[in-house]
UniProtKB/TrEMBL annotation:
The lineage of its organism: Eukaryota, Metazoa, Ecdysozoa, Arthropoda, Hexapoda. The gene is OR106. This is Olfactory receptor 106. InterPro entries: 7tm6_olfct_rcpt. PANTHER family: ODORANT RECEPTOR (PTHR21137), ODORANT RECEPTOR 19A-RELATED (PTHR21137:SF35). It is found in: Cell membrane.
Amino acid sequence: MLVIYFFFCPIYFGIFMRTVNNITDQDTKILPLQTIYFYDISTNNRYYFTLLNQIISSVISATIYTGMDVLFGVFVLHVCCQLKILANNIEKMGDNNNFQYLLKIYIRKHYQLIRFADQIEEVFNLMLLAVFASVIITLCVLEFSLITVLSGNSADISMMHVIFDLQFMLTFIFLMFIYSWVGESLVTQVIKHHL
């Protein structure tokens, strides 16, 4: 919903989420993303081509940006569920006549899960370090920005600036919560079932 508001409010209603001070911006043809255009966007064909380019590029960028986070969460939750299934199968194994055969299968499955978890850690280790470092730096800068804006005596405090900073901070805090929750659920599964 916010994306629709961000992209189409400048086009249809003339409501801007930014300062219109770019020399390439025109009063009648404002694009959602403020950039410097190396060509004249006053013609309709170039304007709509640039608008379509910005929308498609934003969707692709958002998909790539969130794709790694979702992929990490899915992999770790997959390992958690596989551990839970393995633990349930081991508990039910004592009643079966094929005890040796099932034990061999479950030990093999357990080794596969350990290898998969090690691969997840190896692939995402540096990425998560970079994400945590960037989130910490971003939160510090945003908090400093909010403190600076809110402690100022000027009457021209931009409410959009404050709302954007708060929304950005809440998004990063929620991202850290998701990472922590996924990691904690994996640790809980391992400790709970002694795997």
